[in-house]
């Protein structure tokens, strides 16, 4: 489901412009930074999904999702207040700034949430696609995919291929992290305060390590659920200062790669019902596309980008509630049936 929804969302986002700048709506720097760590986390998460008992996975996910949704809701509330103040200020300026003939003077320095100049879908597609960056992301994805060979679980080659994913992920992440760090340091030394990418944080070693840990955590959650880590990446991008439009587009773009890897890993572990998955993929593709369409229309009408944050927070909260109910029911049934509810051995359970 996540793979289908993210793929359709990416296709939709590629045909819409950046809300404030003449740049791609997908931040490829952040995508390259987080994608390898997410994919590494997915590998770990899929392995843990075999070992961890069902009740423990449920508890951990509920705690994480409730915390993430609460933080996102708080962020959305702050954005809503800022947008309200901005609207009032703009209304006041429209009432105040008029010339002697009563003609309205428009503040040309104001950057609207919705772009004024309309471009065709093909123009936006050409603007949003950066083929060199996409090729690098595809190379990382293919590298991880090649390391998911259908070999005997817990055999020698299995662990060799499993361990090879760590240097691949750390190498790509390290390259992009060093690039951001050097660019940030260079701009600071010259007094240039312009942001390197959409994030508004300073790219210090501490912040880079924080992003790496969050990427692995998001991937681990994605591996446990087969979700691609978007429930962590989306709020994280908002937390580091990325505007909602770009955060949503970048998160779904990265999720398209990471969730597809999760699908492959679950398939190799023989935990993948193909007919049911194909049905859900078709439904999620339609839901993802039309969901993006209606949300964009709603933002255009209300002129509030915080709508994206509230929707994200609501989806995460609903997921926590749903998983909580299902998890409790399943755990009670397992207790009544006297099923084993402890940790399993990874190799012995295959």
From TrEMBL:
Any one of the GO CC terms: membrane
Keyword Hydrolase: no
Membrane topology designation: Multi-pass membrane protein
UniProt cross-references to InterPro entries, sorted A to Z: TM_pro_TauE-like
Major localization listed first in the record, in broad terms: membrane
Subcellular location: Membrane
Record-linked Pfam families: TauE
A GO BP annotation: protein ubiquitination
Presence of the UniProt keyword Acyltransferase in the record: no
Keywords tagged on the record: Membrane, Transmembrane, Transmembrane helix
Transmembrane region(s): 38-66, 134-151, 157-178, 205-226, 246-269, 276-295, 307-328
PANTHER family: CEREBLON, SULFITE EXPORTER TAUE_SAFE FAMILY PROTEIN 4
Family of the protein in this entry: Belongs to the 4-toluene sulfonate uptake permease (TSUP) (TC 2.A.102) family.
Name this polypeptide is given: Sulfite exporter TauE/SafE family protein
Organism field: Ficus carica
């Amino acid at each position: 489901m996540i793979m289908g929804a993210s793929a359709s969302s990416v296709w939709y986002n590629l045909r819409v412009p950046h809300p404030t700048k003449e740049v791609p709506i997908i931040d490829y720097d952040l995508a390259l930074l987080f994608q390898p760590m997410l994919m590494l986390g997915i590998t770990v998460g899929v392995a843990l999904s075999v070992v961890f008992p069902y009740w423990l996975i449920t508890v951990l996910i509920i705690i994480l999702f409730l915390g993430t949704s609460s933080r996102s809701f708080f962020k959305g509330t702050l954005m809503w207040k800022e947008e309200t103040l901005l609207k009032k200020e703009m209304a006041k300026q429209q009432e105040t700034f008029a010339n002697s003939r009563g003609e309205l003077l428009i503040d040309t320095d104001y950057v609207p949430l919705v772009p004024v100049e309309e471009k065709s879908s093909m123009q936006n597609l050409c603007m949003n696609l950066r083929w060199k960056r996409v090729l690098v992301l595809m190379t990382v994805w293919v590298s991880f995919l090649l390391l998911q060979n259908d070999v005997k679980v817990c055999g020698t080659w299995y662990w060799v291929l499993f361990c090879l994913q760590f240097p691949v992920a750390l190498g790509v992440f390290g390259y992009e992290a060093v690039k951001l760090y050097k660019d940030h340091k260079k701009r600071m030394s010259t007094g240039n305060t312009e942001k390197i990418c959409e994030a508004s944080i300073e790219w210090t070693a501490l912040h880079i390590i924080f992003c790496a840990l969050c990427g692995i955590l998001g991937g681990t959650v994605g591996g446990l659920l087969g979700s691609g880590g978007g429930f962590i990446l989306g709020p994280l991008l908002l937390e580091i200062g990325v505007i909602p439009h770009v955060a949503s587009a970048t998160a779904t773009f990265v999720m398209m790669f990471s969730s597809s890897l999760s699908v492959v890993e679950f398939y190799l572990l023989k935990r993948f019902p193909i007919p049911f998955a194909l049905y859900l993929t078709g439904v999620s593709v339609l839901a993802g596309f039309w969901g993006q369409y209606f949300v964009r229309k709603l933002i255009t009408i209300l002129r509030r980008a915080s709508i994206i944050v509230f929707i994200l927070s609501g989806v995460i909260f609903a997921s926590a509630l749903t998983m909580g109910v299902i998890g409790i029911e399943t755990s009670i049934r397992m207790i009544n049936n006297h099923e084993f509810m402890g940790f399993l051995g990874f190799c012995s359970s295959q």
